Amino acid sequence: MGVDTWMTGATRLRSTVVILTALGLEYQSVRQYLTGCDVVRHQTGTVFEVGDLDGTPWQVALAELGEGNRPAAVVTEQARQLFSPGALLFVGVAGALKDDVELGDVVIATRVHAIHGGKDTPEGFMARPEGWAGSHALLQTARLALRSASWRPEPASGNAEGQRGPQVYFKPIAAGDVVLNSSASALRRQVHTHYNDVAAIEMESAGMAHAAQIGHIDALTIRGISDKADGNKYPDADAEHQPRAAAHAAAAAVAVIRQLPASPTTATASLTSSDGVPPSQREGALSTPRKGSPLSVRHLLSCLADAPLPLYVLSPAAIASVGIPDLSADRVSADLSHFTVRSVTASGQPGAPAVPCVSRDAATQAETARQMSHEHAQVCAYAAALLDHAVTVVPDGSTLRLLTPHAMALLWRDSHNPTRAVAAARRVRDAYLALGAYEEGLPLAVQIVKTGRGDLKDDLALGQLRRGCGDFPEAEAVLRQVLARAEKDAHAHGLSLAGRTGPSTRDILRENASGPFTRELSPVQCDVLGFMAEVQHAMGNTLYDMRRYEQSERLLHAAVGLLWRTQGAHHPGRMVAQMHRAKAVVRQRRWEEALGLVHDVLPHLAQLRLDRDSPEDDALIRLAHAEVTADIVTSLQRGDTPQMRGVGMFPAIVVKWLGRTVTTARPEKLTWDDVRHLGDDAVRACESTFGGTHPHTAAATKVRDRAVAGQRKAARP
Questions:
Q1: Which end of the chain is less enclosed by CB atoms within 10 A, N or C?
Q2: How far apart (Å, rounded) are the C-alpha atoms in residues 562 and 392?
Q3: Do 384 and 345 form a contact (C-beta atoms < 8 A)?
Q4: Where does the Nucleoside phosphorylase domain start and stop, copy by copy (predicted)?
Q5: Residues 138, 146: Cα–Cα separation, whole Å
Q6: Any idea what DSSP says for residue 647?
Q7: Residue 52: inside a domain, yes or no?
């Protein structure tokens, strides 16, 4: 079953606890406690099984995400989007780092340390600690639930003899990016020196805890001990001890959930996060407005625009996915029966697909507004969450024009809690940006920035949309401000950008030349540099459109270096930036150098199969390749004189010789036939990825048309 069938027809929406696991055996250890499971899929494909935990008012959403802190962070955010959970638990196995913690024992993380943040210096490793405390409310609940031995599962048949019952320790846990299986390794010494309060080590909780803190989710890690991280971890031992450790962790987690407050409508409010703020008072959180008349569809519509609203926005599955208390599927169906449903074409063009829509009832609008005046902000948050969900349900953008006025209306409302409205507007804006509908996305981007609740990414999106609309000076002005603030943020994180975009010679000699070179960078620093590269890329493309090719090349060169440094030479973003840099270089008539940049990318393109794994980047690379080749052929036919530039200590003649040595193509050998072939590839890739009306497809078609015209001219006697 999928998300469209989850809880359809339910008489009451219930609060949700999310449990994340890394391994299949951890997943199955929890899954055995659940009944009546259905499947919910995030738009990215992540699968959650949602079932009942008998004897409790809670539903449990369970996911298996694999090993690693980054997947844990991503899936935590996806769980927040889908369920707005009352609590989140990471349940699994770990290695013990204390002698008194035995195999099968359970460690509840009072704090999670991210152990790979630091700087490796000649004097040794200098730790840069980063950590997150477990939810106080969940820790207190766990202490209550696990105080007695009643939670312990029965020993496996035939294995009870000689086994002591699992003990519970409330201690910090370390989370890294590698498996520790040595009692004398450098990593073991590092952990002992800088994080000597930890009782166990694993590979996911740092990502989960960081994302949970950002999303204001009460979170806790529960780990069963499956090894001692001392060199005795091997397949046979794992097969013996991991199932037992996972079973103990799952039993402890279930015991904690059973002790959570019994009423779903008060459970979330009873939990407080590590910052002490109840979820009902947190920015962006959903709670139940019960002061006035019962919540209805009319209340939701009163927050939206006086315009047709697609019916699927208010479907029972949408209500369930958002998690609106006390608004059941039956209530929604009954309310909608009083409205007139009419079909509206999303584009307004004759023959376009029609979408069933409802509009708010103007006659009762004023009365409804009076009934809910004291809870208006909360109901607007519900409406915004439904709108946010609606964009993910129809990701192709076929009904974006119908959703846009409602997103704008939510942004205009004077609300004390605009976070949900901004999130919904962002989703619609980003969909327009992906579709190349820049003029339609621009008003939303402007309004998001005007709310004062935006961030640098919102300013970046505004600059990108202004560029797409052809407002190049305005785009430059916006992006220069973003670039200055991003540089300031980088300096605040101890990062100097002067002469340090790409890896150093020492980095290349010490590590794989393909990178990434993140040994001396924390994950936060990598994120800062990655955003800097994104801004430089956008600014470089804007300057290219303004024909300021030298400045464009410098910024794109810097972006390529930062992406090489933080993501590696194989990263699609680095390859796209490199191709766009080649476009700026060829406009300066440095043909040999431009082809060298192109041929830096093409081997990776063939090796990585980007057409399958990252089709957008594949299409952009193919388009840039066709554009570079077309510019070279055009320039050659005009009789332009090629330019050469020395690099560092090498004179131009040496650079030219090096370029001819490593580059398989020669500028003078390129023809319109080559451009036609590349143009055809670019058109196919862009049409398949972006659609026939996207500006990228139009640009590819323009290159192909140039090639066709050039071929005809060359064929004339």
A1: C
A2: 31
A3: no
A4: 16-258
A5: 12
A6: B
A7: yes
pLDDT digits (tens, 9 = 90+) for 130-188: 778 899 989 999 999 998 888 888 765 445 545 668 999 999 998 876 665 455 566 66
* Shared-domain flag, residues 298 and 183: no
Q: Are residues 311 and 247 in the same domain?
A: no
Q: Is the same domain home to 204 and 76?
A: yes
Same domain? For 212 and 349 the reply is: no
Look at residues 400, 428, 453 and tell me which one is the last residue of a structural domain.
453
Q: pLDDT at residue 715 above 80?
A: yes
Distance CA 618, CA 639 (A): 32
Mark whether 481 and 438 lie in a shared domain. Answer: no
- Structural domain contains residue 266: no
Domain count, the chain: 4
Structure tokens belonging to residue 363: 């006659």
- Amino acid letter for position 352: A
- Helices 523-545 and 456-468 sit at what angle, rounded to 10 degrees? 20
pLDDT in tens, 565-580: 888 888 999 999 999 9
Q: Are residues 98 and 224 in the same domain?
A: yes
The domain of 21 spans: 14-152+164-260
3 state DSSP class of 361 = coil
Query: Same domain, yes or no, for 460 and 507?
Result: yes
Dihedral angle over CA of 74, 77, 78, 80, nearest 10: 160
Pairing of strands 168-175, 106-114: parallel
First to last CA, the chain: 66
Instruction: Kindly state the average pLDDT of the residues 187-206.
Output: 77
Q: Which residues contact 450 (CB under 8 A, 6 or more apart)?
A: none
